[in-house]
Amino acid sequence: NSEARRLRESLQEERNKRLLQQAVDEMERDGLAKMSQRQFSDALQTFEAALRMKPDDSHLQVLVTQARGRMLGSREASRLLSEAKREAQSDRLAEARALALKALESDPDNPEAPALALHLEGLIAKIESGKQLNAGMEQAERLLAEKKYAMAIEKLAALESEYPGSHQIGELHT
């Protein structure tokens, strides 16, 4: 009779372990799905719940650490992107770009950070190009004022090839 009871207890214990493992496996899959959807806080809660069921599971401990790191990185990236947008609105484009790049470092998979950084780089390049065109135009105007027509025409031709279709060059060139 005691042998049958031990066998029954052993079978019940095995069944409980299997059910526990199935529940933990399901929670792990759910947590991983949440991670892939960038729902890091929910994923962290799911992994922590699974870890409470199996506290010695080193794989779950790693998943908890990863989810926490991704959650914190995502929060930091959001903060940095908000700050970058404020800087951009204040025409501090270089500072805004640096913040967008920091956001990308904090959360490499952030969908907004690369687009913002590229947009800011484009704006900065456009402004720099405009500055260079204006400097070249000023130089051409000085040459014209000094009656160095051949040099002015040469400068305007160089500017025209570098900035095709610029109305500023056409106005001065005529």
Structural description of this entry:
With 174 residues, the chain is mainly α. The protein is 86% helix and 0% strand. It is built from 7 helices and no strands. Helix 2 (40-53) runs antiparallel to helix 3 (58-89), helix 5 runs antiparallel to helix 6 and helix 6 runs antiparallel to helix 7 (167-173). The longest helix has 35 residues, at 2-36. 20% of the residues are buried.
What's a concise summary of this model?
The chain is mostly helical and 174 residues long.
Rg estimate, integer Å: 32 Å
Task: Summarize the biggest pleated sheet.
Answer: none
Category from helices, strands and their pairing: mainly alpha
Strand content: under 5%
Key phrases:
174 residues; mainly alpha; 0% strand
Topology (elements, then pairings):
Elements lengths: L1 H35 L3 H14 L4 H32 L3 H14 L5 H34 L3 H14 L4 H7 L1
